[in-house]
User: What shape does this take?
Amino acid sequence: MQIRHISTNLGHGLRRNLSMHLAVVLTLFISLSLAGIGVMLSKQADLTAEVLGNELQIQVYLCVPKDPNNAACVGEVTDPQKAAIDNVVAANPEVSDYYFESKATAFEKIKELLGPEQFEGRDAVVTEKDMPQSVWITLKDPDDYDGIVDAVRNLDGVSYLKTARDLVGPIYTMIDVLKYASWGAAAVLVLAAILLVANTIRLAALARRKEIEIMRLVGASRIFIAVPFLLEALVTALIGVGLSAGALAAFTQWALIGGLDDNINALPFIGWDEFVQTALLVAVAGPLLTVAPTLLLTRKYLRL
Amino acid sequence: MASRTVRPVIRFEKATVAYPGPGHPALDQATINVDKGEFVFLVGPSGSGKSTALRLVLREMRPTTGRVYVAGKEINRLATWKVPRLRRQIGTVFQDFRLLQNKTVSENVAFAMQVIGRSSRDIRKNVPEMLDLVGLADKGGRMPDELSGGEQQRVAIARAMVNKPMILIADEPTGNLDPATSVGIMGLLDQINLSGTTVLMATHDNGIVDQMRKRVVELEHGRVIRDEATGVYGFQH
Assistant: This one.
């Protein structure tokens, strides 16, 4: 009987307040989509950093035989040379952290970035052997790198240095601008969604005040009185989440996979794995955004 | 008060309800005991504290000082989540009936059972019985606005009684009714009382109080100024 009562009430509640529920669904849809895009851009920044290094990094490429970048290199960097470089880097106060990257890792990275086809078989453009070893140094301060550059540049076994900020700085700036713009807009819309949820509850509580008062007086439990409101909030949230997941899937398919990834080879792009992770976040955030204020406000408006 | 052998179902022990600001408290050191099966009129002018006393019994509020016991529970110390269970032992009737206009008479009565999770079978059995008791057995399918005021109050009484509460609270139940209809409603409340339900009724209706000859507790400025076992209204308009 209670389940029938609750489901009937849910249907009535959704119909009675249709325009308000639609407003909640639409604002939730747009805010969750923007927040989701922000999350995906953040993942994109992480992926870019993983492959290209981040603004705080300096990459020190070590000599290879017949090094095209440095005529002074006489052959492959030796272990004593590497140990000397290790000592210099470890002792430098500007360095926060560093690690050596092997030929194999470098080869895997380039294969992943540009696609494995041209690196396999007998006609391979580059082989693992051709890849330089490198030292990836993370700085304490991205603007404070003169000392380490000067200390390392002329060591034996060092071919050349690359400061990631020159290459990836503008990319990160762009990603950051888009990410924070998305999050900013999402935050404003989330606030709008919460206010709409509050208004919806107030209107619904007003429309049903006599019914709610009788329920209280005859001893209906607080949760029983609040359940129709919570279910309405959950239903609107789930519709908003569904629409938002659809929008993020479209963004992944047409903007990332079919758009940027097809046209820009110099950068790796996120794909369906990151979409699934983001969609899960959205699926948790959506109901939280409507159910949590509903829980708080039903106490206030229903005098439970 | 004579010594009691029956435990009171409602007990006010120096209960005071004070609001911030000047003016007398809504209820001032009120001590009232209502035994199981009693019929008690609560009389007094507007603002004397009648409604506050009823709200305390329903645990709509708590006393500022003093204690109030209802059905053996001290309401000051009753956890909020236990309040619904307390209210299931109390039926409530108001001056303005408070029926749901979009539900039939039967549905209005059934609503009180549905929302506390009673089974469909219980509802099918109890609702017609209750409508029969209040004399509306043939009007279950009517909408509230098709009924007279007296009939609407009978529906409200049926709804209040359908869960078989031990206490019936009536706040001016005849306030909107003509004298002849009021007599009918009082007859019904008396019948309910005779079947063992404790009735606590706030009223301004001196004719009814004088005629019923039940216990009368009179309040003025929140204080109990009279408590008579078989009293009359006594308050002059």
User: Anything to note?
Assistant: The longest strand of chain A covers residues 95-101.
